[in-house]
Design a protein that fits this description.
Blueprint lengths: L3 H15 L4 E6 L5 E4 L10 E8 L2 E7 L2 E6 L5 E5 L9 E7 L3 E6 L6 E5 L2 H8 L6 E2 L18 H6 L4 E2 L3 H10 L13 H20 L40 E5 L2 E5 L6 H7 L2
Helix pairs in contact: 1-5, 4-5
Bound molecules: zinc ion.
Zinc ion binds next to loops.
Length: 279
């Protein structure tokens, strides 16, 4: 947390508010949150923000003259648009002021996130995407999963692996597996091509539905305009162990997969059904 829909919601806020703006100044509050500086972050001053792309849970900020900043929100990171740089909220590590009295405050109490600076977009992409992240979950196609026929992994661990698909985490994996009626410990090699295609469809449906509601706020998450995401009330299984399945009425069950709390419907997501289906 935050996962793809939350990071994409922040990106859209930023594109609305600061795209095309010139950076006026950069204030570093906590230097060790800057994980890499191929150029000093102060040198962003005077550059223009040309675009912000997202891949998985990372944002890539492109500037002119050439420079690229990569940000990752980790577990508790926030980027907040504020009208002042004077009020420093708790756990703020960096403030970027842009023309028009807009100030971007980067905060992260748990500090699992970070900020990286590169001289070019190519350098940033090479460092963060190539060999490290698979296809972005919103661009996923069934053929991206064709190698699953030869893999020995199980579904949820494979979906959590950012090298396979970038952007998914615990919440949306549980939701997508429930929607696709697949058990999280099913071997990926046992899925038929039809089941893989259905899973791809369910992943994108869940992510797009969450995006329409500004993402999911469980506790901390806020978008860049400090709004909560309202998708939590629409979750089917995540955090709902013991409650009835909204599809069949069976009590939802909690289990641990790779130390992650996981919730399934034992009836809709029975592994028995899936063995028969897969060929
Ligand atoms: Zn069910």
């Amino acid at each position: 947390m935050p996962e793809l829909p939350e990071v994409e919601s922040v990106r859209r806020n930023l594109m609305d508010s600061v795209l095309g703006c010139r950076i006026e100044s950069v204030r570093v509050v906590r230097a060790d949150y800057l994980r890499h500086q191929a150029l000093p972050v102060s040198q962003l001053a005077g550059r223009k923000l040309c675009s912000i792309d997202r891949h998985g849970k990372r944002l890539f900020w492109y500037f002119a003259p050439a420079a690229c900043m990569t940000t990752h929100l980790g577990m508790s990171g926030r980027i907040t648009l504020l009208p002042s740089s004077e009020i420093i909220l708790a756990h703020t590590h960096l403030i970027i002021s842009v023309e028009g009295s807009i100030h971007l405050h980067f905060s992260d109490p748990r500090r699992f996130g970070g900020i990286w600076l590169y001289a070019s977009g190519e350098d940033a992409v090479r460092a963060h995407i190539h060999g490290r992240m698979g296809v972005d979950a919103l661009n996923l196609r069934p053929e991206d999963l064709s190698s699953w026929r030869r893999k020995k992994t199980r579904l949820k661990p494979e979906l959590l692996n950012q090298k396979t698909i970038a952007g998914l985490g615990n919440i949306y994996i549980d939701e997508a597996l429930w929607m696709a009626r697949l058990h999280p410990l099913q071997k990926v090699s046992r899925l038929s091509s039809g089941s893989r295609a259905e899973l791809v469809c369910c992943i994108k449906r869940v992510l797009n539905a969450s995006l329409r509601h500004g993402g999911t706020t469980l506790r901390d998450y806020r978008d860049a305009k400090a709004n909560r995401g309202t998708f939590a009330r629409r979750l089917a299984v995540y955090g709902k162990a013991g409650k009835p399945c909204r599809r069949c009425g069976e009590a939802l069950r909690g289990l641990l997969v790779m130390q992650r709390s996981t919730v399934i419907c034992p009836k809709c997501q029975s592994r028995k059904n899936q063995g028969a289906k897969a060929q």
